[in-house]
Structures are given as C-alpha cells and as structure tokens.
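Design a sequence for this backbone.
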C-alpha cells in the first residue's frame, strides 16, 4: 500500500433545490477504503519510520478502523492486537480482523485503558516495540489525514470552477471533522462544514472536535465547527425507516452503498438538515467515509 491518489468527486443528485456532489473515500484502494484507510496510512508511515514491530489499537466489534489496521499490519507481517469491548461479533469487519490474524482481547468498557496498558507492557516484555493507534485513528495524525484531504477538495473546485457552500459527512470521534476544519482555516475559506453526529451528543461531541483542532493548529475558531446531534436516531448503530429508505434509494438510484451506522445516517441527516434549514440553490459536498462491510451486514439483516 502506497500513498493514495485523490478520490473521485462527482455530481450525484438534486436535493431540495441543491446540487449534491459526493467524494468517494469509500473507494480508497485498500480493504474497502473509507476514512480509516486514509488515517491509518499515515499512522503506518510512523510505524515504518520508527521501526515498530507490533501494533495495538482499540475498536468495537463492527469497527472499520480495526479492519484496516489489522489488514495493514498483516500486510507488513507485524503483530496486531485489537482491544474491544465486544467479545462476540458476527460483523463482516470482525470476521476480516480474524482473517488477518489479529489477536483480539475483549474487556469491559471501563477497563479499556488498563487493558491497553497491559497488552503494550506484555509486548515490551517479549522484546517487541509496539505502536499504539488510538481508537478510530483519533489524534493529530488522523486530523492531518483530513487536513490533506481538504487539498483534494480545493483542487476539484479549482479545476471545475465551482465552490462548495457546504460539506457534510458522518462525524464519530470528530477527527475527520477536525481535519476538514483545519483545511478550511488554512485556506481562509467560507464554506460551512457540517458534521452529522452518528452517536455523540453536544456539548461533548463538539468539544472533542474543538480540542482536536486546538491540538493540531494551536488555536480554534468555534464558529467554524458545526457538529449537529439532531440526527443520532437514538444512538450508535441505531437506525430508522428513513435511514433504511435512504440506503435503498442511494443504491438503486446511484449505485452507491451507504451503511446504517455512519454514511446512511449522515446522508439522511443531511437531507433533513437541508429541508429544516431551508437551504436551496447551494453546492453541497457529501464525503462518503466508507463502511461498505456494514452496508453488507445491513443488507443481510434486512432481507
Ligand atoms: C469512523 C467512521 C466515521 C467517523 O469518523 P470520525 O473521524 O471518527 O469522526 C464515519 N464514517 C465511517 C464509515 C467510519 O468508519
């Protein structure tokens, strides 16, 4: 796996009188792509440069992040440990993590930090040099990945002589969100960046984004962070018939797989946001952050 090329951006449809474009980060050419591939590729550069020979990370049973990390570790023949609050999971992501030969250690949610420390220490005792990747690829390296992705968006605008008024995407840990805002600050742009929360509520959700930006830039303009928690639909992984309908519609009408935990929830949230805020006649960019294995899980459980 080498440095990725810019991912495709193209026009998909009209929503509420707006033109919606999509950026296909789900098509990053590594293990079903997604924002975790973009972030992990930078973490693995650090791993290579630092001469680490084991990788430790954290994620739920359905985690896209764990799939990517386990795959990149296996490719390099590095030992990989996944700490997870979920013992059992039938998700395709978990099955792939197992296929990549990662060692999964499950523990109670309140024991995560201790378990991570224990695993790292036991690897060191065995003479290994472990590298820890925060859950979801959170932190400055993850932020950097989407600060760089912003350049791809600018390039598209320049080549196609248009400006996006809004950027929407699924916001979880807020790292993708933070990176995009850092890109915006770098260019002094005016567009609105709207993260549709898939689980976290405010004020915490927004605060984490603000903290990530401050960590990375050394300052933060609160007005540029719009973390919207109105479309959570009850919590992480939960979805309603509107989300299900959106997933079906996008696949049937455009051949684009969205999932019920992240991108489908965010796209449906964006649709509602545009209506509720009476936004019309704008250029909208939706970033498809991946999660295709979860689309497949959804499909199997819905038929
Ligand atoms: C992890 C994930 C997100 C959320 O990204 P954050 O940077 O954690 O906010 C969105 N979409 C998909 C498909 C993901 O796997």
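Sequence:
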């Amino acid at each position: 796996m080498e440095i990725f090329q810019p991912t495709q951006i193209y026009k998909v449809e009209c929503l509420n009188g707006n033109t919606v474009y999509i950026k296909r980060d789900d098509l990053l050419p590594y293990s079903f792509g997604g924002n975790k591939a973009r972030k992990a590729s930078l973490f693995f550069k650090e791993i290579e440069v630092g001469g680490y020979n084991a990788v430790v990370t954290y994620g739920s049973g359905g985690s896209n992040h764990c799939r990517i990390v386990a795959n990149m570790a296996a490719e390099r023949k590095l030992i990989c440990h996944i700490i997870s609050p979920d013992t059992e999971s039938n998700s395709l992501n978990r099955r792939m993590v197992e296929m990549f030969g990662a060692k999964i250690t499950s523990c109670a949610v309140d024991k995560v930090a201790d378990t991570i420390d224990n695993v790292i220490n036991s690897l060191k005792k065995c003479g290994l040099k472990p590298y820890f990747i925060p859950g979801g690829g959170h932190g400055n390296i993850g932020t950097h990945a989407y600060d760089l992705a912003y350049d791809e968006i600018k390039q598209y605008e320049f080549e196609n002589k248009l400006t996006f008024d809004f950027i929407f995407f699924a916001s979880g840990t807020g790292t993708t969100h933070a990176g995009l805002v850092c890109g915006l600050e770098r260019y002094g742009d005016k567009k609105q960046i709207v993260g549709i929360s898939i689980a976290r509520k405010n004020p915490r959700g927004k605060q984490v984004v603000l903290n990530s930006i401050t960590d990375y830039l050394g300052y933060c303009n609160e007005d540029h962070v719009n973390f919207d928690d109105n479309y959570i639909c009850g919590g992480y992984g939960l979805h309603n018939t509107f989300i299900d309908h959106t997933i079906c519609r996008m696949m049937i009408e455009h051949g684009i797989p969205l999932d019920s935990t992240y991108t489908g929830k965010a796209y449906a949230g964006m649709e509602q946001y545009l209506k509720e805020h009476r936004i019309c006649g704008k250029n909208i960019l939706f970033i498809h952050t991946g999660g295709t294995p979860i689309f497949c899980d959804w499909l199997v459980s819905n038929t």
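The two ends are 35 Å apart (CA to CA).
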